[in-house]
Amino acid sequence: MTEQYSIGQTGKPWQAGEKQQWLAQQTKKRDYFEDIEPQINALSADYQIEQYGVLDYETHFPLYALKSANWRSELPVVLVTGGVHGYETSGILGALAFAKKHAKTYDGEFNLLILPCISPWGYETINRWNPAAVDPNRSFYADSPAQESLLAMEYVNPHLASIILHIDLHETTDTDNSEFRPALAARDGKINHNWNIPDGFYLVGHTQKPEAAFQQAIINTVQAVTHIAEADEHNALIGVPIEQFGVINYDATSLGLCMGMTDAAYVTTTEVYPDSPNTTPQNCIDGQVAAIEGAITFLLAQK
After folding, report:
1. pTM for the model
2. Phi and psi, residue 51, nearest 5°
3. Using one digit for the tens of pLDDT, what is the confidence trace for 121-135?
4. In angstroms, what CA-CA distances link 226 with 114, 176, 249?
């Protein structure tokens, strides 16, 4: 348990005033238009770049998707999403690094559909939530209250029948305990209980379609690049019992998680730990890229 958060009263969910107070404390710390948008545009020779929406905030953020240049309607689709939590940097940069490295690798096998930065405001302010104090990664459902989630779903929906794989790129950070979980508890009028932060990479599979061999193949690939998180003394990661080395499962659909927004047979969420003394920012990006590569290699082996 942690001390009461700086906004609100213990046991009372936030109302509009508290949410506005929280928003007033958020400041811009980095620039989407300088850091991320140019990297997306630099891929225009190798991908179709489609703007699928604009976030209607004080700053208007255009949202982009990358589609295989040689898109073939008969091919299955591999969906990669990053930056659902905009502060989780290696998810965004990992999606872009994968796109740059593999523009042609899977031609004739899969169509690639990559949404590299779903939450640009979160990227700029280093935030888990959007300006309305809503978590996009709990908001992937019909009539979503999060613009980020709603626009992504509307864009992806025409491809649902073809999506075979969806991998969503995330991080678990020390700020989960120092800021984001205490804020969540305060917002919802609950008592906060922090979790153990795993030191290393791990995966969150979907309880409705766990596909253990698929998850294991990703872990095996990532293990050659960066270290995998060991279970804690309760044989758990972030309070959830492990299913196998480096893997836990959530019911993504009922929780409104991004990885639950399609009917893809193979889904997973990556979790990188950038605050580990045993890693670097580049190593985290490499781990994200390796995870996508491992997932696709597994699918190719099933053909």
Report:
1. 0.97
2. -90, 115
3. 999 999 999 999 999
4. 23, 21, 21
